[in-house]
């Protein structure tokens, strides 16, 4: 009786990660610039509720299996289906935690001294729409609804990426939109081809029908889908757009993009490869792609002098670990990939937020303009050190555990290519540690020369990825720069260096550092959950039965 009641509650909860942010965004748009404090609490409360819902979905999907909801009462495959299995529930939960922390960080950035006072009518509603799009993509039970989720992401992310309207942001936004549109067109073409071949776009039904069609046609459909998702996941050689697009955005936007949006692409690859194309012929090709992604990404990071660009290249590199786990096509590899996704979303977002604090305290994100932060900002040094070591894979942190799990799966596969990838994984981890140590030595440890670090109260021109564009303009009483012309949210205002960092910015960053450490402390249960999710993914039947009613 209690189990039946809990199942009924879960069915009501499944749509909420999409509905709640959309509803809150609508309310905020209606309010405009009125009741700013109330709007901030509305945003925080909404994402807190999504976090709670995600956690309950994790518990429910683990105990009762995948939970499917037919929106509008139309049964699958006719209606819109939302499905919360263990993987989807985990992704919703982690993304809610990350977006909540970044939202609080951005509110603190707007409250910082000398920050531009501007309406919240653009940033926060768009941010909530972005969260809704992410949740919709994770919960989508059919390809077209997944496409809708991606388009929501594209629309919201373009607005966020170009906040402030500076030349570099508009240029980066244009590149981002063109690349995203190419991916979306490929995705739409794939949907049309799949519908023409099978008569459905419902993923559970496709899991039953695709094995029955011609093998060559099935391979073509798979290749088009994987290419579309690989562009969004920033997989080499389709990742050149990312390091030039993400670092130009305001720090909170860059953090949530880097930590979360690429993982939507990885999630989609996992979903179609396990549910629609099990035992794929592309596994060998995906392993080569994973290898190239790891190497090219980390070599790009080694060559960087700007922390944001360096982290952007490490982001590309570590996508390779996730593709490695997927390409192995085993339960152990899939479990490693699921665990590593949760780890990497958290750590990568945290490091970008800390980079924003470094810029606010030291006046730059360029390594040749930083130094001595360990003495003048010891708390900031600690906040950087922990997730940096986690990203580098230092034991016993979650990054080490995730990489060990993937390497173990590679050794279990026993093929020469798998062994090669295990070796490349070790090399990539060592080079990641090298670039992180380089940031530590330059920005924190070395003694800066006189005038190297910007004085408190220095107004920085709009932060760019290009080293020549992050220039100190000198002390000023007012924030100046291109962003002031547009009257958008203070998240895009010029950065002003300060000895005392805003409490909510530091607090939200501390919370994410603690969340990253929690992944280590509770690694046993989380690895068990990831293993169960992998078994469920590889089995297919639980997902299909939940959607189609076991018919």
Automatic annotation (TrEMBL):
<protein>
    <submittedName>
        <fullName>Na+/H+ antiporter subunit D</fullName>
    </submittedName>
</protein>
<dbReference type="Pfam" id="PF00361">
    <property type="entry name" value="Proton_antipo_M"/>
</dbReference>
<feature type="transmembrane region" description="Helical">
    <location>
        <begin position="175"/>
        <end position="199"/>
    </location>
</feature>
<feature type="transmembrane region" description="Helical">
    <location>
        <begin position="285"/>
        <end position="303"/>
    </location>
</feature>
<feature type="transmembrane region" description="Helical">
    <location>
        <begin position="120"/>
        <end position="138"/>
    </location>
</feature>
<feature type="transmembrane region" description="Helical">
    <location>
        <begin position="87"/>
        <end position="108"/>
    </location>
</feature>
<comment type="similarity">
    <text>Belongs to the CPA3 antiporters (TC 2.A.63) subunit D family.</text>
</comment>
<feature type="transmembrane region" description="Helical">
    <location>
        <begin position="249"/>
        <end position="270"/>
    </location>
</feature>
<feature type="transmembrane region" description="Helical">
    <location>
        <begin position="417"/>
        <end position="437"/>
    </location>
</feature>
<keyword id="KW-1133">Transmembrane helix</keyword>
<feature type="transmembrane region" description="Helical">
    <location>
        <begin position="12"/>
        <end position="31"/>
    </location>
</feature>
<keyword id="KW-0472">Membrane</keyword>
<dbReference type="InterPro" id="IPR001750">
    <property type="entry name" value="ND/Mrp_TM"/>
</dbReference>
<feature type="transmembrane region" description="Helical">
    <location>
        <begin position="334"/>
        <end position="358"/>
    </location>
</feature>
<feature type="transmembrane region" description="Helical">
    <location>
        <begin position="310"/>
        <end position="328"/>
    </location>
</feature>
<keyword id="KW-1003">Cell membrane</keyword>
<feature type="transmembrane region" description="Helical">
    <location>
        <begin position="144"/>
        <end position="163"/>
    </location>
</feature>
<feature type="region of interest" description="Disordered">
    <location>
        <begin position="464"/>
        <end position="485"/>
    </location>
</feature>
<feature type="transmembrane region" description="Helical">
    <location>
        <begin position="219"/>
        <end position="242"/>
    </location>
</feature>
<dbReference type="InterPro" id="IPR050586">
    <property type="entry name" value="CPA3_Na-H_Antiporter_D"/>
</dbReference>
<dbReference type="InterPro" id="IPR003918">
    <property type="entry name" value="NADH_UbQ_OxRdtase"/>
</dbReference>
<feature type="transmembrane region" description="Helical">
    <location>
        <begin position="511"/>
        <end position="530"/>
    </location>
</feature>
<feature type="transmembrane region" description="Helical">
    <location>
        <begin position="370"/>
        <end position="389"/>
    </location>
</feature>
<feature type="domain" description="NADH:quinone oxidoreductase/Mrp antiporter transmembrane">
    <location>
        <begin position="140"/>
        <end position="428"/>
    </location>
</feature>
<keyword id="KW-0812">Transmembrane</keyword>
<feature type="transmembrane region" description="Helical">
    <location>
        <begin position="38"/>
        <end position="59"/>
    </location>
</feature>
